[in-house]
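Researcher: We're reviewing a set of sequences before deciding which ones to prioritize for further study. For each one, I'd like a predicted 3D structure that I can look through quickly. This is Alpha/beta hydrolase. If possible, include the structure in token form so it fits the rest of the review sheet.
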Amino acid sequence: MINKFSKFLVAIAIVCLGLCALLYFFQSSFIYFPQKASSASGTTTMRLVTEQAELVITQRERRGAKAIIYFGGNAEDVNRSLPTLVSAFPEHAIYLVHYRGYGGSSGSPSELALQMDAKVVFDKLRQEHDSISLVGRSLGSGVATYLASVRPVSRLVLVTPYNSILELAQQKFPMFPISWLLRDKFESWKYAQQVSAPTLLIAAEHDEIIPMSSTRALLENFRQGQTQLVVIKGTGHNTISQKADYVRALQSGL
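Model: Here's the predicted structure for Alpha/beta hydrolase, in token form for your review sheet.
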């Protein structure tokens, strides 16, 4: 009986180790879902060489000091967000970043790669615009928060933001040692205290992907007095941008 039980425990251990290995080696496929770029009228395309990659950036050019850099979600074709941004900010130059592996950009995405690329994009555009604001949605909220912590951005808007992807993964897979397995943790809370720009968090009332508790936890990590939270009623993670209140919220943030 003891021998059979020991074999059972060994079998369970092997299964658990196998699942851990699966999560570790294939974790990128759970985080990143590269999309092709759709056409975007009234824009041009800029190609920017960064370390080990060439990024595609869709740009709606406007002369002047003000510009917006947009970092999208993990399964987003950022070009589809252009009409909303143009409607909200007709006088701004707008730059939509296609992550590595997305929209014609070369390379493979990772947290470190996205952070490095974001700095290169900002430094390039700062040569042309004195006032650069950031909009980061979902996955992109982590990229934007990091960039705002290390560069002098004018304003920061985070749409459906999270406190940490590590925390979200731990909630989803409580039976696994996620903190050991996960390489790309996207711990926005670590960078929030270093952000000096006025910041707006925009949350969906019924977000089925990022719990409101995660967004509120992130809010608490920013400096007091510089950050606001707006909740768009009657929306989910993927429908938040369909409401007129969303455009008004964007405008209030920038």
